C-alpha cells in the first residue's frame, strides 16, 4: 500500500490504522474490468458494480446507501463512471458530501467529465483518458504482484470500450475480442455486472474461460441500406445490444460505420445509436467521430457515451428512424470531405540555427564518407590495372 500512497497521494488512516478500501465501478465490460484492476491495485476489501446502481444518474444515492453509515473511515475508489450530465451539480455535491467522512478517489477517462473535474474540492480526481487502455494499464502497472491474467483483463476491458489504442499498440487478437464479447453477455444478465466482477476477483481464469464460451449469444441485425461508408440497420436494434449489433453489422457489410435505433425498456425512451468500426478508426484516425457529428446535428440534446459509439434520445419511433437516416447521411458527407491530415512541424527561432548546424554537419560527414569510398574505388581500379599489366607481360614472355 505504500507504493499506492506514493503513486496517488492518498492519506493514511487516523491513528495509524489501516484504511479499508472499497471500489465502485461502472456496469459494462470496461467498468468491471477496471474495477477488478483497481481492487487488485489498492488491495480492496470489496468491489461493487451493478445496473442501474452504478450509473451516473444513481451513483450518489448508491454510495449513500452503501457507505453513509459505515462505522469507520473508508477509502472509496470510483472508476469509469462519468459525471452525470443530466445533473452535474448534484453529482459533484453528492461526492463532495461523501468525502467529508471518507477519502474519495475518482478515476475517469470520459471526455464529458473533464469540464467538471476542477469543481471537486475534497474528492481527489484523476483523469486518465480518453483511452480506456491507458486507464487500465495505469492501474495494472501498480498492482504489487501482477500476473498475465491481470494484463489480459486490462486489454479485454479496453476492447469492451472499443479503444483504438489496443489496435495501435498491437495488443488486439480475435480471441480477446471473443472474451470481451462473452463478458458483455454475462454483465447484461440480472445482477450480471456484480456477479461477473465478483467472479473475476475470486476466479479470474475460470471467468475468462466462461466468457469465451458465451460470446455466441450476441445477436445480429440485418442491413437496410448503405449510404456511402455507413450501414443502416433494418428495424429496431435488439434490446440492450445496440453498439455490439451495429459493430457486427459494420463488419459483415464491410463499412466504416453503422447506424440504427431502438427502444430502451428500462428508461422507456427511444434512442439512436451510431458506431465507427473501431479497428478502422485505429487505422484511419482522420475519420470523423459519430459523436462530433451528432453534436453538430443536435446541439441542444445530450450525446451519451463514447464519441466513437454515442447515442441520442428520440421522442418517438418515427423521429428515431428519421434521425438515424439523417445521422447516416451526415456521417457519409463528413467522410467524403475528410482526408488524411497533413503533418506540419513548427520549429522555434532559437532552434533553427542549432538544427541547421546539425544538418550541415551531417552533410559534411556524408561527403567525407563518399570521398573515402571514392578513394578506395580508385585504389581498386589501380590494382586492377596493375594486375592486367602483369598478366599481359606474362603472356608476352610466353
Which descriptors apply to this entry?
398 residues; inorganic pyrophosphatase (n-terminal core); Diaminopimelate Epimerase, Chain A, domain 1; 3 domains; 6-stranded mixed sheet; 16 helices
Describe it for me?
This protein has 398 residues and is an alpha/beta fold. It folds into 3 domains: 2-216, inorganic pyrophosphatase (n-terminal core), CATH 3.90.1640; 219-337, Diaminopimelate Epimerase, Chain A, domain 1, CATH 3.10.310.40; 346-398. Helix content is 51%, strand content 15%. It has 16 helices and 11 strands. The chain has helices at 2-8, 29-41, 59-67, 88-98, 114-117, 132-141, 148-160, 164-168, 174-187, 192-202, 204-213, 242-252, 278-283, 290-297, 317-337, 349-397; strands at 20-25, 46-48, 74-79, 103-108, 124-127, 223-227, 230-236, 257-264, 269-276, 303-304, 311-314. The strands form 2 sheets. Strands 6-7-8-9-11-10 form a 6-stranded mixed β-sheet. Strands 2-1-3-4-5 form a 5-stranded parallel β-sheet, with helices on both faces. Strand 7, helix 12 (242-252) and strand 8 form a beta-alpha-beta unit. The longest helix is centred in the C-terminal third of the chain and has 49 residues, at 349-397. The termini are far apart. Mean pLDDT is 88; it is low at 1-6 and 10-16.
Amino acid at each position: 500500500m505504500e507504493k499506492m500512497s506514493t503513486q496517488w497521494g492518498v492519506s493514511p488512516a487516523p491513528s495509524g490504522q489501516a484504511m479499508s478500501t472499497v471500489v465502485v465501478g461502472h456496469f459494462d465490460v470496461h467498468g468491471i474490468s477496471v474495477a477488478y484492476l483497481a481492487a487488485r491495485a489498492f488491495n480492496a476489501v470489496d468491489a461493487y458494480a451493478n445496473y442501474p446502481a452504478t450509473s451516473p444518474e444513481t451513483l450518489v444515492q448508491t454510495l449513500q446507501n452503501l457507505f453513509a453509515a459505515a462505522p469507520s473511515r473508508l477509502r472509496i475508489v470510483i472508476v469509469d463512471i462519468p459525471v452525470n450530465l443530466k445533473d452535474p451539480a448534484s453529482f459533484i455535491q453528492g461526492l463532495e458530501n461523501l468525502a467529508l467522512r471518507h477519502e474519495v478517489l475518482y478515476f475517469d477517462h470520459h471526455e464529458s467529465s473533464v469540464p467538471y473535474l476542477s469543481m471537486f474540492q475534497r474528492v481527489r480526481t484523476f483523469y486518465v483518458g480518453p483511452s480506456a487502455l491507458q486507464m487500465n494499464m495505469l492501474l495494472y502497472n501498480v498492482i504489487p504482484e501482477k500476473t498475465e491474467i491481470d494484463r489480459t483483463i486490462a486489454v479485454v476491458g479496453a476492447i469492451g470500450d472499443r479503444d483504438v489504442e489496443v489496435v495501435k499498440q498491437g495488443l488486439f487478437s480475435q480471441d480477446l475480442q471473443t472474451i470481451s464479447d462473452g463478458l458483455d453477455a454475462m454483465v447484461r444478465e440480472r445482477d450480471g455486472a456484480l456477479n461477473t466482477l465478483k467472479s473475476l476477483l475470486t476466479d479470474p481464469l475460470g471467468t475468462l474461460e466462461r466468457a469465451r464460451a458465451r460470446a455466441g449469444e450476441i445477436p445480429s441485425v440485418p442491413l437496410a441500406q448503405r449510404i456511402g461508408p455507413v450501414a443502416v440497420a433494418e428495424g429496431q436494434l435488439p434490446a440492450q445490444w445496440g453498439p455490439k449489433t451495429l459493430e457486427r453489422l459494420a463488419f459483415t457489410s464491410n463499412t466504416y460505420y453503422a447506424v440504427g435505433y431502438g427502444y430502451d425498456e428500462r428508461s422507456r425512451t427511444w434512442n439512436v445509436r451510431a458506431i465507427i468500426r473501431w479497428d478502422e478508426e485505429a487505422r484511419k484516425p482522420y475519420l470523423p467521430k459519430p459523436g462530433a457529428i451528432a453534436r453538430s446535428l443536435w446541439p441542444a440534446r445530450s450525446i451519451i457515451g463514447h464519441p466513437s459509439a454515442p447515442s441520442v434520445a428520440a421522442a418517438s419511433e418515427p423521429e428515431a428512424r428519421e434521425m438515424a437516416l439523417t445521422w447516416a447521411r451526415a456521417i457519409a458527407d463528413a467522410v467524403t470531405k475528410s482526408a488524411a491530415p497533413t503533418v506540419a512541424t513548427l520549429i522555434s527561432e532559437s532552434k533553427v540555427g542549432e538544427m541547421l548546424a546539425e544538418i550541415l554537419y551531417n552533410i559534411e560527414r556524408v561527403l567525407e564518407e563518399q570521398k573515402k569510398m571514392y578513394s578506395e574505388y580508385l585504389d581498386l581500379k589501380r590494382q586492377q590495372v596493375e594486375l592486367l599489366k602483369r598478366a599481359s607481360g606474362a603472356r608476352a614472355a610466353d
